[in-house]
Amino acid sequence: MTTLTLSAGLDDAELEFAAETRSVDQLDDHALLAATRTGDEAAFQELVRRYRNQITNFVYRMLNDYDRAVDLAQETFVRVYVNAERYQANYSFSTYIYRIASNLAISELRQRKRRRVVPLPSFFSDKDGEEVEIELADERQMRADDALIEDERRRAVSRAIASLPEKYRVAVVLRDIEGRSYEEISAVLGLSDGTVKSRINRARNLLKEKLKGYL
Amino acid sequence: MNCEKIRTEIETGARHEPRSTAVREHLVACAGCRGWADETDSLLSMLRDVPRVQAPADFDLRLRARLAVAREERRGWRAPLAAFWSRGFAWSQAAPALAAVALVATFTTLYVTRDRQPAPAGEQTVVRHAPEPMPAPTAPGGDSAVGPPRTVSPPAAKGAVRAVEARPLMAKAAPPESAPTVVAGTPILLGARAGRPVLTISEVTYGAQRAVTQRAVARSAAQGPESPVETIF
């Protein structure tokens, strides 16, 4: 009865679109990519919706540069789309897309190292390139000292992560920020479990040294 | 369990799972590991609390634009191939074309190789130029087996013309009045007669040269046996 009431105001095309949307929502990643291969744009949009924030955040933590992170996140999806026909479901789709994103991020870091590129501070960045949260004046007045301390702590963490060597950075970001399993990180980076654990351990020890004052 | 194993277990443990009894008991007993575990927990907590950035609102819009560009680029280099395959490939259609290609290749090969057949013995001499004269060693008796270009009288044997005007191809001295020397690897005979070098080249035919040489021989015969052979080329 409810369905009838809801659908009463919709024409056939809208109903069809609603059915497609519902079915796309229910598909798993592999099925969505298979549908993308056949030219199903809605399936690809659903993949983008599922992963755009994760990939953007991951690349941002790798580069500490939001604009470039968005750019590379988009490039990641372009590569997924263009190479959809070549995708083989040996790994989970998330492993696949993180692999593409991490390769792009590492490549960018290496290019920057060669070019010694320093990202220009954006409109919402301070002189160190840190993102500055824009807040209303009364909220700022209401903010307590611990909030300022917390803010400073977060910036220190961001700086510490950004200062790690790339091979340690990618491992610790995937594990401790993105929450990926060791097995998945091994697959993303193409390394053995032992190497991944060793790199994460090393990264954490470096972070402990850098953040000694905040721990 | 020793401290190292405890620390490894803490490090590799799942985020939300409680620590095992052995680990908990060890942490109670070992102050060093307890301090290390507290520090690790604090670090992991800080990393988890790092604010996550979100994709911008126009992410999808910009992505669609990039995908359109990527599709166009792909279409650019794949279009001719795609058009070919979209018409449908059939061996029945391709067979005549392949046969024609094979036929052309066969005739071309035959045409190119037909003049490389060895010529029958006793035929005409080929006159040709060598690149540049090489320094000519003087043979005993003052004769040079090889030297600057000169005209050599044709022999009167069986009407076969061998005398040529030619620069020597090989700077190799030959004994005077001796039997012809075959220079290894070349169809050239070097010798000397009456103190003059004689260069005899067995026939090598390059395409139309045979006809030209035959004309030269005919002209030489008409002028008499003593007349020098006209130089061709």
Descriptive notes:
The complex is a heterodimer of chains A (215) and B (233). Chain A is mainly alpha-helical and 215 residues long. Chain A is 72% helix and 0% strand. Chain A is built from eleven helices and no strands. In chain A, helix 10 (182-189) crosses helix 11 (193-210). The model of chain A is unreliable at 1-10 (pLDDT under 50). A three-stranded antiparallel sheet of chain B has the order 1-2-3, with no helix packed on it. The termini of chain B are far apart. In chain B, helix 1 packs parallel to helix 3 and helix 2 (21-29) crosses helix 3 (31-49). By secondary structure, chain B is mostly helical. The model of chain B is unreliable at 136-161, 168-178, 182-186 and 227-233 (pLDDT under 50). Classes of the chains: A mainly alpha (215), B mainly alpha (233). The interface between A and B is medium-sized, with 39 and 27 residues.
Give a concise summary.
Chain A has 215 residues and is mostly helical. Chain A contains eleven helices and no strands.
Q: What secondary-structure arrangement, pairings included, does this model have?
A:
The complex is a heterodimer of chains A (about 220) and B (about 230).
Chain A: H1 2-7, H2 12-26, H3 29-37, H4 41-63, H5 66-82, H6 93-115, H7 137-142, H8 145-162, H9 166-177, H10 182-189, H11 193-210
Helix pairs in contact in A: 3-4, 4-5, 4-6, 5-6, 6-10, 9-11, 10-11
Chain B: H1 3-12, H2 21-29, H3 31-49, H4 59-86, H5 91-113, E1 181-182, E2 188-193, E3 196-201, H6 209-223
Antiparallel strand pairs in B: 1-2, 2-3
